[in-house]
Amino acid sequence: MDRIGILALQGAFIEHIKTLRSLGVDAVEVRLPHELENLSGLIIPGGESTTVGKLAITYGLVEPIKEMASGGKPVWGTCAGLIFLARRVQGIEQPLLGVMDLAVARNAFGRQLESFEAEISVPALDAVSQPDERGRPFHAIFIRAPLITAAGDGVSVLSRLDNGGIVAARQGNLLVTAFHPELTSDTRFHRYFLAMIAQGQATP
Fold first, then answer.
1. How far is CA 5 from the centre of its chain?
2. CATH number belonging to domain 3-202
3. Would residue 63 show up in a list of annotated catalytic residues for this protein?
4. Which residue among 15, 16, 180, 190 is the active-site one?
5. Catalytic pick among 15, 16, 35, 182
6. How confident is the prediction for the chain on average, in pLDDT?
7. Which of 54, 74, 158, 204 meets the CB 3.0–4.6 Å disulfide criterion with 196?
């Protein structure tokens, strides 16, 4: 059985655990470097990205997560996790893993009061969809959300807002979403991440 870690330093990690367990996956909380061992993949959840970065440094997690990502293990960042994975963040110096060729704007849509929900098109999810789910928009919940402002040549854009803003992307074994799939009953993004893990395990 796949064993997925959820970085549990701060933020919305419990919801990811509940979703994964509903899919029959062994989901565990990660707070220390040794807890990254023997994982099939890692999710870095939403929260406050500066705090997550500082705590990751304090607990010695930055280099082990970088090694995990560069070694081909799937890593998925949601909201603050997206920021932490990115190479560049506009207008502020903060700890970053810098493993994904993205530039990101923090709180791109405003503060908590400007949080919003939107139906977005994510064609890549059709690969893990049931027949009645194919082509269905994903109900995305944005809470003090970041926005991807630039993506490198090796990055595949998975979804944009109607105004063209990039809100989901993939670079090989790395996945990011500016929104919170774990706060919905739609498990397609979690299934997509599990498919990435299965694909990696099948690659010689």
1. 12
2. 3.40.50.880
3. no
4. 180
5. 182
6. 92
7. 74
Residues 6+ apart with CB under 8 A from 9: 31, 47, 51, 52, 55, 56, 59, 61
Per annotation, catalytic residue among 16, 35, 79, 190: 79
**In this model, does residue 129 exceed pLDDT 50?**
yes
- Asked if the model's pLDDT at residue 174 lies above 90, the reply is yes
Establish whether 79 is a catalytic residue. Answer: yes
Full DSSP string of 131-197 = TTTTTPPEEEEESS--EEEEE-TTPEEEEE-TTS-EEEEEETTEEEESS-GGGSS--HHHHHHHHHH
> What is the model's pLDDT at position 114?
60
Contact 196, 175 (CB under 8 A): yes
Residue 34 a catalytic site member: no
Supply the pTM of this predicted model: 0.94
Question: Which whole-number Å values give the CA distances from 92 to 10, 18, 86, 89, 193, in the listed order?
Answer: 20, 33, 13, 6, 30
pLDDT of residue 10: 84
What are the pLDDT digits (tens) for 18-46? Answer: 999 999 999 999 999 999 999 999 999 98
What pLDDT digit, counting tens, does each position of 85-126 carry? Answer: 999 998 777 888 999 999 999 877 766 556 899 999 999 999
Closest CA to 36 of 61, 2, 56, 71: 61
